[in-house]
Design a protein that fits this description.
single chain; 608 residues; alpha+beta; 4-stranded antiparallel beta sheet
């Protein structure tokens, strides 16, 4: 049996402490080659030889890891990040493997579970977890009847796991699933995508099926770009699939097949995708709970040591109190607020206030731990304006093709000065709106910073992405991204898509009016189709918005109204698309779009 031992073997200690760890991992990666050399055709079907080869695998691992055993039995003094030295006992960490490798590692019969004692006939039954002690007890009881262990318990009694040679190590506890290959590549590519191809060939014949598959490829290739989303210029037509290929294609595949396959197949894909994103969210939640438990225990320990009393300035402030009388002699009868008598402590002094995001730049300092996490987003224009683009609102109107841009700016200024006015723009006479005739600065992008702990994020779960609005992107074609715009922030009961509208940004610009700088965006609105997501794909649908006179519905909004970027995928229907459509044509060519909630986990939370 050839075992893919290039999987990651993780240890809970740093390789810098043990230089032999790197050499050890290199040795482990070579076992696969040894296995292939021994697997000759003459003996490949011999039961005794196969048992020998499997035990050789475990014995090799045990011998390779043997130099590290000393650190698992004798404490080592290690300096921690807080500056304290502690005695540490190390141990083997999780072994990430697919099922075939799990069966070999756990010494179980193929088809049984490596983690629990459920029978192979019903793995969904409630069952106790597998453990080293349970296996050893069965071996003692049935030492002379290994066939019973094989048939009734799924245990290969001839093999001894390599973890039995190490303290505090139980292979059943160390095994971790290979999510990338088992869940994503295995289920998505090896089952669902192949299922679509098989269905098309069975239903329409090979020639017509290939024609449909070519159209699916063109649909995938025509999808508009999005930050962090991989592009597939050839569709799904690449020879060697990797786990990352499957993970990226999952985000755009569903709308591309709708119209070419029955609704039942589309709904199957939807169920799988939603499970995949929910699985990650549960994992993040469990990890967060574990970290919170650790923080709580640390806080109790710190409190018992008096480490949470005051701040780092407390000692200095205490010493200054003894110097205060020397300066307060002449002011002992002064008013509150003098040096001799400190000002009374108000509620605002006692409670720290969260930092207010500036319209000019982000607060570069982190939020103090005692303050609640801010879940609001912040959008900031690029630092450098585009010198070759429009400098007046009239020139910008010509550049982006919005003739009434000056009127839209006047309406924008009216709402900025009258935020409580609930009238529609058409109800406000332009004579009541301020006029602006100064210069403007145009920008090709803006950065959105928002709370997204389920995706790749920094400290505190914050993430930054870029929103593009450029007439020429990477010297290839124009790019005008779409965004979520908060329109119902005053109603806390509305969340998700109910709290946001979708719009496309045609320009970012800023200007000063009466001493106030306004960062703005020229947008075109989208209208939601229906009151909920599409039943087959589970995604909301939108279409470009028009005014009653059938002209495009443009507006100018403050960048504070923008939450983050959003990815739209065309609703292709059952028609074949043109071979000439490119990604930058997508938003202008099609008339309805899916809000891609699978673009990332944060988008799934909003548009799910």
């Amino acid at each position: 049996m050839s075992v893919a031992l290039t999987r990651t073997l993780l240890f809970s200690w740093a390789s810098s402490l043990f230089p032999k760890v790197i050499d050890t991992l290199h040795c482990i990666s070579e076992i696969q080659g040894l296995s292939n050399i021994l697997a000759t055709k003459e003996h490949s079907s011999d039961t005794a030889f196969r048992m020998f080869r499997r035990q050789l695998f475990h014995s090799s691992l045990s011998m390779i890891l043997d130099p590290l055993k000393l650190a698992m039995t004798s404490p080592e003094v290690v300096k921690f990040g807080d500056g304290y030295y502690r005695r540490v006992i190390y141990g083997l960490g999780p072994y990430i493997a697919d099922y075939e490798e799990q069966a070999l590692l756990a010494c179980i019969v193929r088809g049984w579970c490596a983690r629990c004692q459920a029978t192979r006939k019903n793995l969904d039954d409630d069952a106790l977890l597998q453990c080293r002690e349970f296996t050893e007890a069965l071996l003692r009881e049935a030492a002379n009847s290994l066939a019973i262990l094989w048939d009734e318990y799924g245990i290969v009694g001839d093999l001894v796991p390599f973890t039995n040679d190490f303290p505090h190590a139980d292979i059943h506890q160390l095994i971790a699933p290979d999510i990338l290959h088992q869940l994503i590549k295995g289920c998505f590519k090896d089952h669902l995508v192949d299922w679509v191809e098989t269905y098309l060939k069975t239903q329409y014949g090979t020639k017509e099926a290939e024609r449909i598959l070519d159209d699916i490829d063109r649909r995938i290739a025509a999808i508009a770009p999005f930050t962090g989303l991989r592009r597939f210029p050839q569709g799904r037509g690449f020879k060697q699939w990797t786990g990352d290929d499957s993970k990226a294609l999952m985000k755009v595949y569903l709308p591309a097949i709708k119209g070419h396959v029955p609704a039942e197949i589309v709904r199957t894909f939807r169920a799988f995708l939603e499970f995949s994103y929910l699985f990650n969210a549960i994992g993040q939640m469990l990890l967060t709970n574990q970290r919170l438990d650790k923080l709580v225990s640390c806080r109790i320990d710190f409190a018992s040591r008096g480490m949470l009393e005051g701040t780092c300035l407390s000692a200095k402030l205490q010493s200054l109190r003894y110097l205060a009388p020397a300066f307060s002699t002449s002011n002992s009868g002064g008013a509150p607020g003098s040096v001799g008598e400190p000002a009374p402590l108000t509620h605002s002094d006692a409670q720290p206030s969260p930092p207010v995001a500036s319209t000019q730049a982000d607060n570069e300092e982190g939020i103090p731990d005692d303050l609640p996490m801010s879940l609001t987003g912040h959008v900031e224009l690029a630092r450098t304006r585009q010198g070759k683009r429009a400098r007046t609102i009239e020139a910008l109107a010509v550049e982006i093709g919005v003739p009434n841009l000056g009127s839209l700016l006047s309406q924008f200024l009216f709402y900025q000065q009258h935020p409580n006015d609930r009238r529609e723009p058409a109800e406000i006479p332009l004579t009541d709106c301020p006029r602006f005739e100064g210069s403007i600065s145009v920008f090709n992008s803006a950065s959105a910073r928002f709370y997204a702990p389920s995706d790749l994020s920094g400290l505190g779960g914050m993430r930054t992405e870029f929103i593009r609005s450029a007439p020429l992107w990477r010297n290839e074609a124009p790019r005008y991204d779409c965004v979520f715009v908060g329109t119902n922030s005053t109603d806390p009961s509305e969340t998700g898509m109910q709290a946001y509208e979708v719009a496309r940004v045609f320009s970012f610009f800023s200007f000063k009016y009466k001493g106030v700088r306004y960062p703005c965006a020229v947008i075109r609105w989208f209208d939601k189709i229906g009151d909920g997501p599409d039943e087959d794909t589970g995604m909301w649908m939108v279409r470009p918005s028009f005014l009653p006179n059938r002209s495009p519905n443009f507006s100018i909004i403050h960048t504070d109204a923008i939450y983050r970027a959003v990815h739209l995928i065309p609703v292709y229907g059952d028609q074949f698309i043109s071979r000439d459509i490119r990604p930058h044509h997508s938003y202008d060519t099609f008339h309805a779009f899916y809000v891609n909630k699978y673009a990332d986990h944060h988008a799934f939370e909003i548009a799910g």
